Amino acid sequence: MQMKTASVVAVSASVGLSIHKGKTKVLKFKEENSNPITLDGETLEDVEAFTYLGIIIDEEAGSDADVKARIGRARVAFLQFKNIWNS
């Protein structure tokens, strides 16, 4: 994974793009390789889950966390209409 990361950095730099080390996170689906991923000598933060395009992605590659979050948001929206429906 380190080699692929270095390759992405090199290709990005060749077209004038840079990768923000503070915003870049690592999510490992399989813990076979526990070596840290580095970017220009700095170790990237390992995370258990993150949100991408509004969808929660976790290390189990499941959707439980995302479904629970969506149900919670729907519940909040539904409860906002409670006064209207009860009148």
Automatic annotation (TrEMBL):
Domain of life per record: Eukaryota
Protein name from the UniProt record: Gag-pol polyprotein
Taxonomic source organism: Schistosoma curassoni
